[in-house]
Amino acid sequence: MPIATPEQYAEMLDRAKAGGFAYPAINAASSQSINAVLQGLTEAGSDGIIQVTTGGADYFAGHTVKGRATGALAFAKFAHEVAKNYPVTVALHTDHCPKPALDDFLLPLISASEEAVADGGQPIFQSHMWDGSAVPLSENIEIAQQLLPRIKAIRAILEVEIGVVGGEEDGVQHEGSNDALYTTTGDVSQVVDALGLGDQGRWIAALTFGNVHGVYKPGNVKLKPELLGEIQAGIAEKFGTGEKPLDLVFHGGSGSTDEEIALAVANGVVKMNIDTDTQYAFTRSVAGFMFQNYDGVLKVDGEVGNKKAYDPRAWGKKAESAMAARVVEATKQLGSFGQSQS
């Protein structure tokens, strides 16, 4: 199927919230990882989201070049073309753009979509994340207010982060106090006062409830997914809306238990970012192949090796399938397995 239109993506999120499930949003940084996500979603019968960070876009452009806007556009063009061969609907999203990367990542991509839309086409990405977690909340909101009208004009969705996800992702590291790892209803109220609840443009929120990017074992991070329900109730009461007025995103979920994920989804999470686990699945498969075929991938003791083993396609196919299997697992955890309407 072609990449989702803005209307299809909005409908995806609405259907997830109404149906009590969420979509996996998988970070990709290469054509192999894009293919792996598409394979996994197809095997799961699930629609989903493929996203790219600043570092992923740098890598896609060529690691010696670091042209992140160019890399993101190339990433999107590749995804738009190959997605046509798969029977699921996929949206494209740009992940974690901190303030220093606005000028060489997010803003050029919005401009490129503005040009595409002006020419009668679709936006290149269906949603973009502004990560203002490293600046004061007032500045976070101010920049979101500047971005939202442009995002609305191209019919895309803005993702904002309210609070601080701990750990590190693509060089963006947060060491904030423990209190900063838990978003408050007051914080979210300020955002709603400024951005509205859809009337000024659609936005989704990554609230923090103890999340940490990277690797950790279950129990080592104190997640409080019940906090999401409390914030939803507080916003509904203050602004006189129906229950769960916010569309939420779960960041930093590696190591979360099935119960924690289920409670977060029940409290309005419609998108869960997945990166660390799919990276490991990909690389673990490659490592296993190399260990099992060491005398084929290496020219040991003057031998010639085995071209069929060291051909990158040999281990690449296994790596893509291993990553795809982790995507399938994610759809089962989030409830999107078998939910594709493509």
UniProtKB/TrEMBL annotation:
Zn(2+) 1 binds at H96, H213, H251. Gene3D superfamilies: Aldolase class I. The active site is at D95 (proton donor). The keyword Cell membrane does not apply. GO terms for molecular function: fructose-bisphosphate aldolase activity; zinc ion binding. Pathway: Carbohydrate degradation; glycolysis; D-glyceraldehyde 3-phosphate and glycerone phosphate from D-glucose: step 4/4. It comes from the Bacteria. Zn(2+) 2 binds at D131, E161. It catalyses: beta-D-fructose 1,6-bisphosphate = D-glyceraldehyde 3-phosphate + dihydroxyacetone phosphate. It is an enzyme of class 4 (lyase). Its EC number is 4.1.2.13. PROSITE patterns: ALDOLASE_CLASS_II_1, ALDOLASE_CLASS_II_2. Dihydroxyacetone phosphate binds at G214, G252, G253, S254, N273, I274, D275, T276. Its cofactor is Zn(2+). The keyword DNA repair does not apply. One of its GO terms (biological process) is glycolytic process. Pfam families: F_bP_aldolase (PF01116). Belongs to the class II fructose-bisphosphate aldolase family. PANTHER family: FRUCTOSE-BISPHOSPHATE ALDOLASE, FRUCTOSE-BISPHOSPHATE ALDOLASE CLASS 2. This is Fructose-bisphosphate aldolase. It comes from Microbacterium imperiale. The gene is fba.
